[in-house]
Amino acid sequence: MGESAACDFLQKLGYQILCRNYRKPCGEIDVVALDGKTLVFAEVKKRASNAFGGPLLAVTAAKQRKIAQTAQWYIAENSPKFDSIRFDVICLLGTEITHIPNAFSPRRSTL
How far apart are CA 89 and CA 70, in angstroms? Predict the structure, then answer.
């Protein structure tokens, strides 16, 4: 349900959803989309409350590395047309959606 809400949210912003739940041995990407000419790899984290630190804290440095490796697979297999790449995080806390564009870079290890 979280990914569906995230996709609906992104589509309302004008993003084109290319893929959901892209899986490879190195990891998974929840949503792949185009924001204009920017290829966006989005991690979706849903939590009922902040009791255990909230959704953003779940996107650890190790998770970021796995997403970046999986993104390389996606690009190699699909040859999408894009000018730039971005890694976003979409946090769902209850019914609230927070979109963090450019939340991390494969060259940075943390948010």
Answer: 15
- Helix boundaries (H) for 13-109: 61-78
Domains of the chain, by residue range, sit at 2-104
CATH classification for the domain delimited by 2-104, as one of 3.40.1550.10, 3.40.50.1980, 3.30.930.10, 3.40.1350.10: 3.40.1350.10
pTM: 0.89
Strand order from edge to edge, sheet including 84-93 = 16-24, 27-35, 38-47, 84-93, 96-104
Average pLDDT, consecutive stretches of 10 residues, N- to C-terminus, the chain (111 residues): 91 97 95 98 82 67 93 95 95 89 74 42
